[in-house]
Amino acid sequence: MKNLSDKDKSNDGATPLLQRGAGGEVRIGIINVSDRASKGIYEDLPGKAIVSTLNEYIMGDWEQEYAIVPDEQHLIEQMMIEMADIKNCCLIITSGGTGPALRDVTPEATEAVCTKMLPGFGEQMRRESLKYVSTAILSRQTAGIRNETLIVNLPGKPKAIRQCLDAVFPAIPYCIDLLNGPFIECRSEVIQIFRPA
Question: I need a labelling partner for 168 at 20 to 30 A (CA). Which of 20, 94, 144, 192 fits?
Fold first, then answer.
């Protein structure tokens, strides 16, 4: 698979970046990475699980950019770049493609488009998942930053998606604050986010 060069990891001026956080809009990209779902062979349950969970967490309105792509690294990279640089998403959440199988390439795509990696996300998700399944050690999900967009990989199973989001989302709104993104308010009775005083 073709990987992006360092130049390609940040916007080079060819496509103008939209203003971040204008008007306080929260725009989140959701990418379900799946050969079968992209062909309509089975229902896109992972993507729906992410949307449902975010609706529970986030107070107020938020906009979504949604895509289903096959397990092809260059296509995953292209969608991440589009959502970050053109669609102006402050957060991109992917599902699927994080295992050890030959066609599982979501972490590679994430690393290719990001300028900084945040390995703590993957460590925390695996720590949480190991409470439920021993095969969590096979998961390779990670997170990183492209310009002012946070990208987080999740596993492909809906149940695991909720478990992993519950584990890492408390740190996400503050991370987006640090990236000059919109202020995300959450329902404290559902998720306890952390912002330093």
Answer: 20
